[in-house]
Design goal:
The radius of gyration is 14 Å and the shape is globular. By secondary structure, the protein is α+β, with helices and mostly antiparallel strands. It has 3 helices and 6 strands, in the order E-E-E-E-E-H-H-H-E. It has a 4-stranded antiparallel beta sheet with strand order 1-5-4-3. Strands 2-6 form a two-stranded antiparallel ribbon.
Length: 121
């Protein structure tokens, strides 16, 4: 049985610098480029059903719900943004139109934090 789709969410629980709260979000830089997404090294911890990411230079701590965590894990350096969306839709048995907005919000946060970058070819 497929896991239940839940809107992906990322909470910033600690931040030193970076994007100011309420600043207009920007589209992920890797959207539509066809380049694979690669997650950067971070400390990963479990917090009940959610997961915590701490960037290795200590600028921020993030809490990701299970679907946001799945998005993070799929940024493995082999998949493009479109391929991550397709895999999330397959895994949760929902259509890509359901997955895309939440994934883009997660990708926006992770790219702004430089935790996800475009992989070198």
């Amino acid at each position: 049985m497929a896991p239940s789709w839940e809107e992906p969410r990322v909470w910033v629980v600690h931040s030193q610098g970076g994007t100011a709260p309420g600043q207009a979000p920007r589209w992920p830089v890797s959207l539509g480029t066809g380049k694979a997404l690669l997650r950067r090294p971070a400390v990963e911890r479990r917090l009940d059903d959610d997961r915590v990411l701490i960037d290795v230079i200590g600028r921020a701590t993030y809490v990701l719900n299970p679907t946001a965590w799945a998005s993070w894990e799929l940024c493995d350096g082999r998949r493009t943004a479109d391929q991550v969306v397709s895999e999330l839709a397959r895994r949760y048995q929902v259509d890509e139109a359901t997955v895309t907005p939440g994934f883009l919000r997660v990708l926006t946060v992770l790219e702004a934090a430089e935790l996800v970058v475009e992989a070198d070819p």
